[in-house]
Amino acid sequence: MKLAIPIRDGRISPVFDAAGRFLVVEFDGKEPARRSEYTVMEPGGEARAALLRELGVSLLICGAISNRASRIVERCGIELMPWLVGEIDDVIEAYCMGSLGGEGFIMPGCRRGHGAGRGNRQGRRFIWRGEDRGAAGDDSRRKPGNSTGRGGGRRNRE
Fold first, then answer.
1. Do the bridges between strand 31-39 and strand 21-28 make them parallel or antiparallel, or are there none, so unpaired?
2. Of 4, 62, 9, 12, nearest to 37 (Cα)?
3. Rounded to whole angstroms, what are the CA distances from 137 to 67, 131, 134?
4. What's the pLDDT score for residue 111?
5. Exposure check for the chain: N or C terminus, fewer CB within 10 A?
6. What CA–CA distance (Å, rounded) separates 17 from 63?
7. 13: helix, coil or strand?
8. Where are the strands (E) in the chain, listed by range?
9. Which residue ranges form the domains of the chain, and what is each CATH number?
């Protein structure tokens, strides 16, 4: 089994889409056996996903990742563990121990399985203000006079 981690300064790179280097860890059973670093110069998630596929990576552990890049990675048959932070050695150790989903590794502002409060990005239902909107997107909670229901903007004065 091989896992990949985008790296920067000995930590998980904050954004997969902009990561220039990857650490690929090959496992012998449950123990890390070999580490190799690779560089990607082309912009975008396609080049990164193609490299990981060519290397035979089956799991990507990363920080933030765009919707588009996550779909590309998953189409390549690579399992995705996004929205994580930490020192590389600590992340690998936590993965081996099965404790990578712990609070010390979740990206600030993210909940487990959810990116930056926007709901998870693997095509499942989105969470809106802590409630399940349903597949059709129930708009009954919109504020009167606000077509988007998000609030904030200027209102016309009467």
1. antiparallel
2. 4
3. 19, 11, 5
4. 60
5. C
6. 10
7. coil
8. 2-8, 11-12, 21-28, 31-39, 59-61, 79-81, 127-128, 131-132
9. 2-105 (3.30.420.130)
Which residue's entry shows tokens 């993965």?
Answer: 95
Render pLDDT for 102-137 as a digit per residue (tens, 0 to 9): 778 988 877 654 443 333 344 332 222 333 333 334
Helix (H, G, I), strand (E, B) or coil at 1: coil
Task: Provide the pairing of β-strand 127-128 with 131-132.
Answer: antiparallel
How far the first Cα of the chain sits from its last, in Å, is 65
Q: Which contacts qualify for 91-94: CB closer than 8 Å, 24 or more apart?
A: 91/5, 91/12, 91/61, 92/5, 92/25, 92/32
C-alpha to C-alpha distance for 146 and 13, rounded to whole angstroms: 38
The predicted pLDDT at position 136 comes to: 39
The phi, psi pair for 10, rounded to 5°, reads: 75, 10
Q: Report the residue count for the chain.
A: 158
So what's the pLDDT on residue 74? 94
Q: Quick one: pLDDT at residue 13?
A: 96
The pTM is what?
0.70
Q: Write down the residue that tokens 């129930």 correspond to.
A: 138
